[in-house]
């Protein structure tokens, strides 16, 4: 009898997990869809605002005309890093 109960419980747990994962998947898809709709509306509103006020510089360029900061870390090829022979 116990040999039928254990697989039965495993099957029930698997079905519950399947239902739970499908529900989470649907919620994730709805959240992803809302995110992309929000991004689309944000971009659309930003373009409308730039058309209304073309003299206004974008926020990233309005930083007192300073040149963009150079990165502190640059690419170093491995061929330049050598072990010094003793």
Q: Which features characterize this protein?
A:
86 residues, mainly alpha, 1 helix, 0% strand, flat
Could you characterize the architecture of this molecule?
By secondary structure, the protein is mostly helical. Helix content is 59%, strand content 0%.
Spell out the blueprint of helices and strands.
Blueprint: H1 2-52
Please outline what is shown here.
Helix content is 59%, strand content 0%. It is built from one helix and no strands.
Largest β sheet strand count, sense and barrel closure: none
Q: How many helix segments?
A: 1
Order of helices and strands: H
Query: Quick check: average pLDDT?
Result: 82
Structural class: mainly alpha
Regions with little confidence, pLDDT below 50 for 5+ residues: none
State the separation between the terminal residues, measured CA to CA.
Answer: 75 Å
Helix content: 55-70%
What is the total tally of β strands? Answer: 0
What is Rg? 29 Å
Name the shape in a single word. Answer: flat
| Share of β-strand residues | under 5%
């Amino acid at each position: 009898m116990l040999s039928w109960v254990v697989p039965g419980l495993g099957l029930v747990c698997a079905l519950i997990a399947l239902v739970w994962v499908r529900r989470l998947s649907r919620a994730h898809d709805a959240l992803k869809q809302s995110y992309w709709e929000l991004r689309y509306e944000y971009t659309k509103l930003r373009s409308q605002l730039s058309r209304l006020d073309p003299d206004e510089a974008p926020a990233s360029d309005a930083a007192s005309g300073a040149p963009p900061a150079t990165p502190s870390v640059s690419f170093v090829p491995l061929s330049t890093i050598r072990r010094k022979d003793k």
